[in-house]
Amino acid sequence: MSGRYVTASEDETRALARQLAAGLDAGATLLLSGDLGAGKTAFVRGLAEGLGIDPGDVTRPTFTLVHEYRGGRLPLVHVDLYRLDRADLDEIGLDGDLAAQGVLAIEWAERLTRVTAGSIRVDITAAGGDSDSRTITVEP
After folding, report:
1. What confidence category does residue 62 fall into, taking pLDDT thresholds of 50, 70 and 90?
2. Phi, then psi, of 28 in degrees rounded to 5
3. Do residues 66 and 82 make contact, with C-beta atoms less than 8 angstroms apart?
4. How far is Cα 71 from Cα 42, in angstroms, rounded to an integer?
5. Which of 44, 47, 53 is nearest to 22 (CA)?
6. Percent of the chain with pLDDT over 70
7. Are 14 and 46 in contact (CB under 8 A)?
8. Which of 19, 52, 58, 110: CA 20 to 30 A from 74?
9. Residue 82 in 3-state DSSP?
């Protein structure tokens, strides 16, 4: 589902992520980037919903770097690297086995010291001003 998409609301952003989640298999890694407030966590809520996980359970993991959500088709591991300058997934307490069995979504992925081969890049850009419009680019 690679391409460039424009969403006009948080609901549309979540719907796009739901669609993407439907085609994900165990071991998928999504690298999310975008400015503060761009909609990365809203996108992860859509992923959760698409995996059969209650999107209301998804919180911003800024103070706890890694959140794990289970109960859906696949587990969702949500990582937020905002508070780190640089990060290696092996050093932040990530359960690699769980990530391999589910979907790994990493916010602020540009801070990773190395990227997993086969990762899907998701760049979210807000239109700015009073608009809820987002441009979301998905690239394998």
Report:
1. low
2. -70, 140
3. no
4. 19
5. 47
6. 96
7. yes
8. 110
9. coil
